[in-house]
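Complex record, two chains
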Amino acid sequence: MAEQTAEQTEIRTTERAGPPGPPLPPEPAKPDSAVIRDALGVGIAVGLSGFAFGVTSAGAGLSLLQTCALSLLVFTGASQFALVGALAAGGNPLTAAAGAFFLGVRNAFYGLRLSSLLGYRAAVKPFAAHWVIDETSAVALAQPGRHSARLGFTVTGLSLYALWNLTTLAGALGAEALGDTDAWGLDAAGPAVFLALLAPMLTTTVERVAAGLAVVLVMVTLPLLPTGVPVLLAALAAPAVLFAEGRRQRAKGTRDAAEGDPA
Amino acid sequence: MSVWIAIGVTAVGCYLVKYLGLSAPAGLLERPLVKRLAALLPVALLAALTAQQTFSDGQHLLLDAKAAGVAAAAVALVLRAPFLLVIGVAVVVTAGVRALGG
């Protein structure tokens, strides 16, 4: 069995006609069908939530064309929800775009990790880049090697992009048919999406403190500052908490060193 | 028109950061502090956005049926409900409380 695995890995290595990338560890065999199943699971589940975006965007007053343009061209859910929320509140378009942009910055770091794993040629990267989001990165990074990572990335990206855009359209059309979307409780979809994205990130005290501080900052400044600015200000909770943590660790390090000093 | 400007700026900005990550030489953004900040920034933004959209109309603080819906979504998250169910719970509870006059 081990020999067979090694043989398959060998074949895959020779099949990789891609550019020279950093050498990858030998690829344990994972059946393509298993990769596709994982990828479709994520693509379909999250793709369906485009419906919530379509409804929210239409409820926020964006036209059908504007709503669909966002899903087609921006294609990163949290940024889209943030933008329509800020526009609905009457925020300045550039402040609204800034909040959406800062949320999208995390995708650059997914791209960095994916770059060596996927090893795409320079000509493919401009196209692959559009699909570099939470879900495609999660599926691709969970794969054991380049072949299954590329497969997982492509299947997740394709299924999610297709469904997200179709359900956005359906949601926007549905919202127009529903009339007052607030009466149906659909204005709660946006904050619920943010909360569902946030929850798995709250793994350690640092994240929880940053989240708590951000909430306090936005609540206190909301009545005082122009619309959209409080959220950007609350983003400062991230560097503030990192700075405080760095100081605390340095202080602890100094104390430990002093305690460990035999003198 | 201003909505289209916001859409255009967001689309271009979000695409460029995706492309930058995929094309940047490895190591450029690999400094530990930069990586930690990049991981923590969405936490702060998502928390702020959740609070703002739950407890305000964008400009003024308010407590209405949405708060009950989002609280129900939080319970669903603690119970490890799937993503779509969490959103569904928030919508249904908000609509229910509003129908009851909340």
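Note: Chain B touches chain A through 73 residues (CB under 8 Å).
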